[in-house]
């Protein structure tokens, strides 16, 4: 009989961290060193009934197998399953659970920090590092009651939370809770297909998107009670952000958002429910043209050829009797193809 290796104090019960009972841990270790072993050979520190119960549980969980290799078929022998295969899924499950716990602890930390700052009356907090900023940004949105307002400029510096990630993490949940979401984005961002797709999804969720040429800074305001913005928008090393609570500075930031939101052009959806014969793709082309995208940018966003876009625009102009794109824009507004007022629609074609 091969003697079982003696486990040191550091690893005597490590497998219990994966969900094994202490007896299962002991028996599995013995089986690893003693393939095709009978239950009696595993007794010692454990009694026969305890070993039998542990073996039954290990087989049921796929950590061991039982067979009758003898000719008479009376002796049942047990073999341990491969630790990599048998314990790998348990290990990954624990890792996933720990990641969830780590995320929850981070959220609790940010909530604690926010509550402490609010209780102490500190008007401005400083957050350092992408992890801390990301946690606070998500926590702010999860705590939103009535409204979330954002300025989303196009920047080449690394982002702590991309538009796509924030959409996946927060947008659907905000809509489900009835929180109003208003955003202002730079026109250049619409030329990136991934960003354009996210914005289209946001509009479909009922969010209000305004498009402008240039934004001064990235900004998130929640319920007009707290705002988050970068300390230095051009900083490309470790990011630093400011959390602004109810102060005159927060009032100024709210005014900054409202000014850019009102000056921008509204991004509308497909308006498929309106009663006219305009094809959905033509409606998308007109809407993107309305907010100032070039024919080439529209073609890239819609996955169409440049000439196809130009041909469809020419066909629309011929259909409505428009000699110029200005006239097409005027007709689009009058016909209800756009949500913007007539004067705005005509002005920007």
What does this structure look like?
The chain has 349 residues and is an alpha+beta fold. Helices cover 48% and strands 14% of the residues. The chain contains twelve helices and ten strands. It has helices spanning 22-33, 48-60, 83-120, 130-142, 163-176, 193-204, 248-263, 280-290, 295-302, 306-320, 325-334, 342-347, and strands at 64-67, 77-80, 124-128, 147-152, 180-186, 208-212, 219-222, 226-230, 240-245, 265-267. It has an eight-stranded mixed beta sheet with strand order 3-9-8-7-4-5-6-10, with helices on both faces. Strand 4 (147-152), helix 5 (163-176) and strand 5 (180-186) form a beta-alpha-beta unit. Helix 3 (83-120) packs across helix 4 (130-142). The longest helix is centred in the N-terminal third of the chain and has 38 residues, at 83-120. It is elongated, with a radius of gyration of 31 Å. The chain starts with 21 loop residues before the first helix and ends with a helix.
Q: What's the helix count?
A: 12
Question: Proportion of β residues?
Answer: 5-15%
Termini gap? 89 Å
Task: Catalogue the unreliable spans.
Answer: 1-10, 270-275, 340-349
How large is the radius of gyration? 31 Å
Note the overall shape.
elongated
| Main sheet specs | 8 strands, mixed
Tell me the series of helices and strands, N- to C-terminal: HHEEHEHEHEHEEEEHEHHHHH
Helical residues, percent = 40-55%
SS-based class: alpha+beta
The total strand number stands at 10
Mean pLDDT: 79
Q: Give the strand order, joined by hyphens, for the main sheet.
A: 3-9-8-7-4-5-6-10
């Amino acid at each position: 009989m091969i003697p079982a290796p003696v486990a040191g104090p550091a690893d005597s019960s490590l497998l219990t961290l994966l969900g094994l009972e202490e007896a299962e841990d002991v028996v599995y270790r013995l089986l690893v060193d003693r393939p095709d072993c009978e239950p009696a050979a595993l007794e010692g520190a454990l009694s026969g009934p305890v070993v039998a119960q542990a073996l039954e549980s290990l087989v049921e969980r796929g950590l061991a197998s039982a067979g009758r290799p003898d000719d008479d078929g009376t002796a049942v022998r047990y073999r341990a399953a491969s630790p990599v295969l048998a314990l790998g899924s348990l290990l990954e499950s624990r890792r996933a659970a720990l990641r969830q716990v780590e995320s929850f602890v981070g959220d609790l930390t940010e909530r604690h920090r926010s509550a402490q700052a609010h209780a102490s009356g500190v008007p401005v907090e400083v957050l350092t590092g992408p992890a801390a900023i990301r946690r606070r940004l998500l926590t702010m949105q999860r705590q939103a009651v009535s409204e979330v307002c954002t300025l989303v400029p196009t920047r080449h510096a690394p982002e702590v939370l991309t538009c796509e990630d924030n959409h996946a993490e927060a947008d659907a949940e905000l809509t489900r809770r009835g929180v109003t979401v208003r955003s202002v984005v730079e026109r250049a961002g619409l030329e990136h297909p991934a960003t354009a797709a996210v914005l289209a999804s946001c509009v479909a969720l009922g969010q209000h998107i305004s498009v402008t040429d240039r934004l001064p800074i990235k900004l998130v305001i929640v319920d007009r009670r707290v705002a988050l913005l970068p300390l230095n928008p051009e900083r490309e090393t470790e990011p630093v952000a400011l959390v602004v609570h109810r102060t005159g500075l927060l009032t100024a930031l709210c005014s900054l958002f409202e000014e850019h939101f009102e000056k921008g052009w509204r991004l509308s959806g497909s308006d498929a429910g309106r009663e006219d014969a305009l094809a959905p793709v033509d409606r998308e082309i007109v809407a993107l043209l309305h907010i100032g995208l070039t024919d080439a940018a529209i073609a890239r966003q819609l996955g169409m050829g440049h000439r196809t876009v130009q041909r469809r625009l020419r066909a629309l102009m011929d259909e409505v009797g428009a000699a110029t794109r200005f006239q097409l824009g005027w007709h689009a507004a009058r016909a209800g193809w756009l949500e913007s007022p007539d004067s705005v629609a005509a002005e920007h074609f």
